[in-house]
Amino acid sequence: MQGAQPMEDQQDLLCKNGEPQAIGNYRPICLLSVVYKSSHDNFTTRISPFYDDITIDVRRGVRQGDTVSPKLFTATLEDVMRRLEWDNMAVRVDGRLLHHLRFADNVVLITSNISQAERMLADFDDACGKVGLQLNITKTMFMRNR
């Protein structure tokens, strides 16, 4: 049909208050299909922070730059790190076992040999994948201290 608008683009005017004869008292509303509304209202996601499942009703995504984004990322990454069992691969520094350092979205894995580093990287990649995070292999680096 030429000239027809898709349902999601059609608008109507509703009188918000006051005299119905005054055009300034109307506001436009978008007419969305019932299928779109019902599917959008029923989107949910499941996350498992701290070993308990939580169902979250999704209203909108979180974009990079949103003020809650770094907090969610940090909480998720903290949970990933707690699930990893790396104490036998850690390096002792000032009497404490150290196997990683984190800042924002940067992670440094610390170990005494290359085979442990490979295992740690594989474990970390697997644990991240289980919560929906993905390593950027193009930004992954290896450093060695002689």
From TrEMBL:
InterPro entries: DNA/RNA_pol_sf, RT_dom. Residues 1-146 form the Reverse transcriptase domain. Coiled coil: none annotated. Pfam families: RVT_1. This is Reverse transcriptase domain-containing protein.
